[in-house]
């Protein structure tokens, strides 16, 4: 083990390398790190000497990473992220407390998960949470995460996926449209509609289920996420198709209403992903989540 430590670089050198690669400029990297340009250059030279290969080359007044530098940068970014989360976790809780690292899609996290965490903490008061909102399928082996909520199909390399709930969307109205009479699906065919970029065919599929032909399926406003779609519907920009569990509070306050209770089940669902061989570390939280949802049956 001691002989292998000669390959360990100074963490400050890695920070300097990452910053220089990101800026493509040693002077700007120095400004961010409160170092002189010569100090940045010296650390990069020392790092290149340790590696035995050049990491940068100069092109038109800029420094760009070499092929070795680009490959090294990906590894360094992962290492720095791991180091950052390690320090965050070790300092988050006091003696005897555990840190549970959870990742979930942003809207699911803010509108469903976080408002319910106090219920879990009531029975597990010695837990501290580190909540992330990455949207990609990442490698548990290089990310300090105990459990991830995954929307899509039950596929996550290096992880075990457990079904959590299906996604059922319903038409929703808000703002000036709250008092508009909607008798059937045909009334919505000509009405203003809100589309979500990540679910471009929701309205087409919903009208197909309602056996109504939609002449202009893409007409209307488009927003990238459910969180933006919710706000657009609340302001009365149009009718939206939204999962009921994401708008429970707005429905209870009367800010939104469901003019036609005709649900559509999408072809995807929410799953709980836990790293292979480490499922026990978050088993109690996984079981709590499954017990907390009221919309589990596959639609």
Automatic annotation (TrEMBL):
Gene3D superfamilies: Periplasmic binding protein-like II (3.40.190.10), Winged helix-like DNA-binding domain superfamily/Winged helix DNA-binding domain (1.10.10.10)
Residue ranges annotated for the HTH lysR-type domain, each copy included: 9-66
Similarity comment: Belongs to the LysR transcriptional regulatory family.
Entry keyword Transcription: yes
GO molecular function, one term: DNA-binding transcription factor activity
InterPro entries membership: LysR-type_TF_proteobact-type, LysR_HTH_N, LysR_subst-bd, WH-like_DNA-bd_sf, WH_DNA-bd_sf
Keywords, ordered alphabetically: DNA-binding, Plasmid, Transcription, Transcription regulation
A biological process from GO: DNA-templated transcription
Record organism: Salipiger profundus
Name the record gives this protein: Transcriptional regulator
């Amino acid at each position: 083990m001691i002989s292998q430590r000669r390959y360990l670089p100074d963490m400050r050198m890695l920070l300097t390398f990452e910053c220089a690669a990101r800026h493509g400029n040693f002077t700007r990297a120095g400004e961010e790190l409160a170092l002189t340009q010569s100090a940045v250059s010296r650390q990069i030279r020392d790092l290149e000497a340790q590696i035995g290969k050049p990491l940068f080359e100069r092109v038109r007044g800029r420094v760009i990473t070499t092929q070795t530098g680009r490959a090294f940068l990906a590894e360094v970014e992962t290492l720095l992220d791991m180091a950052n989360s390690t320090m965050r976790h070790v300092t988050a809780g006091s003696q005897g407390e555990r840190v549970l690292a959870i990742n979930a899609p942003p809207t699911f996290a803010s509108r469903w998960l976080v408002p319910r965490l106090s219920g879990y903490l009531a029975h597990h008061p010695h837990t501290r949470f580190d909540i992330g909102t990455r949207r990609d399928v990442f490698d548990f082996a290089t990310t300090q995460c105990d459990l991830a909520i995954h929307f899509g199909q039950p596929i996550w390399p290096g992880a075990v996926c457990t079904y959590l709930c299906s996604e059922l969307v319903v038409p929703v109205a808000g703002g000036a449209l709250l008092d508009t009479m909607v008798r059937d699906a045909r009334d919505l065919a000509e009405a203003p509609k809100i589309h979500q970029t990540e679910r471009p065919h929701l309205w087409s599929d919903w009208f197909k289920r309602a056996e109504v032909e939609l002449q202009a399926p893409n007409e209307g406003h488009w927003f990238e996420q459910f969180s933006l779609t919710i706000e657009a519907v609340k302001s009365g920009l149009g009718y939206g198709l939204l999962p009921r569990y994401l708008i429970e509070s707005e429905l209870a306050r009367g800010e939104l209403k469901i003019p036609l209770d005709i649900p559509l089940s999408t072809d995807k669902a929410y799953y709980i992903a836990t790293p292979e061989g480490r499922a026990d570390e978050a088993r109690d939280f996984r079981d709590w989540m499954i017990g907390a949802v009221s919309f589990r049956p596959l639609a």
